[in-house]
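ok so i was messing around last nite and threw this chain in just to see what happens. nothing serious, just curious
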Amino acid sequence: MIKNKKVNAAIIIIGNEILSGRTQDTNTGTIALWLNSIGVKVQEVRVIPDIEKTIIDTVNILRKANDYVFTTGGIGPTHDDITAESISKAFFLDYEIHKEAFKILEAYYKPGEFNKGRQKMVWMPKDAKLILNPTSGAPGFSVNNVFCLPGVPSILKSMLGGLKNMISGGKPIISYAINLRTVESEISKPLTFVQENNKEVEIGSYPFFRAGKVGVSIVLRSDNKSKIEVCNSQILEFVDQKKIEIIESS
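result:
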């Protein structure tokens, strides 16, 4: 791992079903948490439709602006699964049968089950590297710094472990939360002061409603534990001065 380097990534969620509201996206959280654990910070997430030009344009913009790009969805066997062909065009690569992927799926399915529809899942950009799938057989793939994963959350999650040796991260990003029984307007001024004096710690303020009462969760994020501790002590100081109840911290 590149311990002192800031490494960033973008996530592209591809699928009309997400934009229509029929399916809820949980893949962003899964990928982001995993990336944080290996020192890669997600800078941007985009949700886009199954439209070839949109996929190509989005991939080309984000792959130039980030160390890594992760796409989810659109690599299955149906007519609207166009991610692999779109990635081929984004990189000006031939779209062809990946011989290793063909062998994997040919062995995975029973005789006669590896039909033309399923064979669509082995069409990929030329010389793509495979991302193995321990759950349902069909692999994902990567081209340069773009990693293409399926949209089914359980399958995607099972494939992330196989990516670890393909990603060079920095220091793992630490997250610490303080939950307070207060409202944002009560803490906005002192919290702004703490943020201004702790530039290397990202401070987020998130209101919540729990058990009939309002509260605020303050989340501190950094790759430096000692800086989080300094920031936390400054927050606790004004919390104590204002006699704000701490619900929990973690």
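not much to say yet. The chain has nine helices and twelve strands.
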